Give the backbone structure.
Amino acid sequence: MTRLPWAVLLLTLLGIRYLVWRMGASLNLASPLAATLSLLTLAAELVLLAGYFLQLWFTLLPERPVPPACPVPDPAPPVDVLVPTCGEPLELVERCLRGCLAMDYPDLTVWLLDDGARPELETLCHRLGCRYLARSERRHAKAGNLNHALDHCRGALVAVFDADVVPLRPFLTRTVGFFRDPAVGFVQTPQSYMNADPVIRNLRLERWLLPDEESFYRWIQPTRQNLNAVVCAGTSFVMRREALDRVGGFETATPSEDLATGIRIAAAGYRNHYLTEKLSAGLAPFTAAAMARQRCRWGSGSLQTLRTGASPLSITGLSLLQRLAYSEGILHWFSFPAQLVLLCTPLSLGLLGIAPILIGGEALLTVAMPFFLSQLLLTRWLSGHARTAILPELYRWIFQLPICAAVISTALGRPRRFRVTPKAVVGAGPAGPDPGLLLPLLVLLGLQLLALWNLAPGRLPLLAGQGVALPVSAATVGVVLGWSLLNGMLLLLAIRSCWDRPGYDGVPWFALALPVHLQHRGVRQRARLRAISAAGAELNLESGADGESLASAEGLTVEGVLPDLPLPFVPMAQGAGAVGGVWGPLTPLQRDRLDALLYRREGLWPTIRAPSELRTLPLVLLRLLQRIRPEGWFRRSLIPQLPPLAALPLPRHADLPAAAAVPDPAR
């Protein structure tokens, strides 16, 4: 997180000036309908600005940095590693369990908590040496599953990983040392993803857009650390068992058991830490519909926390700042209905002839534009290069209507039931967009286009001829026109992202730059790794090499991916100076070493900087004109990895610019 007090002060002063103008000179009170629309727009702005400025002001508070990592005590406290599962594919669960067992720690017990009671998982646990637990009554979803396991655990600490998450080897050695302080209740680490989420993948924005969660883990969580209001995120954390017992286990009255349990532990007087190091990675949802389901569950579950004993508005033991931080994190879900109001605001002038905001040319240049341009230019730096101002809003537009429905339904006392986010690719081919996502966006786009048509020169007075009052200036019309065009652009991108990119089989592929050799009948061919997965690899051959002849060769091996351990390679495709193929039959040692390289080794996941929006927006708009080709050879959705430490030419935790982190081959 970047601390820029001067930027916060500048934005605050510009924001105060803007709000004074908005409440005193920009309201349209010409008629009851105009007044209603104008005040509703102002209320929506106030909701959004309240959350924005609260987060900004939190950054001004004195830092309470995470103390230096302490070594693990001797003897090491026993740790129970809990992996709840409910229907995830067998190979995915096995990958997680192997990662948990491979953690560098002397005293850990890995438990698989199976809410599906699948015999194949019990067999897997016996084969790997894990404990297996299944319960007969599956009440309270994930929280109930975890609480059932606590009755069988005896460790002083409890670590929790979702079944799609793989921890790095040093996860426990980096986190357990903090518990030398008896006042520490839990330690949370970031959630990282080993695949691109559907918004990024469907629009081919791997180089230009960071996952929406990055700003939470790189901007919001560090400020919560300063307030001792760290949010427990449901996976990749370690908790003191004594603290859990003291608050009665994991909260069962809300699907957001992680948030509520973390609040209870903070209210019980424990200090909690957020460690910024990326020590694990899981899977983002595979489809836009699955991601919408996930976000709706987060929103509904967070709001349900207000109806439990863990509500930050009423629970005893929290300081005023802690209450404010936790409450803002929950109530920010109401920003989605507020943003929907602002999304529809330009429609008022184009469809009804009523301007909810009255803007003069002088106010536009001296009040509104300085405030919004400052936000546009400073957001990237304030967030620690985790996000920019406009493009990340794409996530809100895509899921706006479903989340608004979930938020309003929960606020009215009808919360959404818990549904697990699918972690498997279903179906063999493209199934088309989800109607629940696509149809509302098409309706909004149609209304925006109609409004834009009415805002064309010469058409707006026609509404006045129908008896509609138009107390608007040219500046007002210009702002609404620009606002509508921006809305239309984001709507088009949102609509395009509803079509899931075909050809994706759920196997994560990574951009990992390593020099390698192709061995064929005693001849070694120099090459460079361009993409790799647990299933195969793509290689760039040295200049002059014949990829077409290699594509039909037999008995190939690849040297250099694993030290002193060649991998059998079966070519499947060739490109311009490149060859792609799958791994041949692997021995248990080769498979384990390959999994360690791809999922478990230290220093694996880089921190990437969001590129400047002035640079990315023109390129992103091209996606609307390009055909999105299915994933396949040399057209992979790639997530960058840092090379192994022995081959690493950069500092271990170097920030990588997004545009340089992922190759962008012709797709």
Q: What stands out?
A: Confidence is low (pLDDT under 50) at residues 464-469, 647-654. The chain has three domains: 5-48+335-393+435-497, 79-284, 507-667.
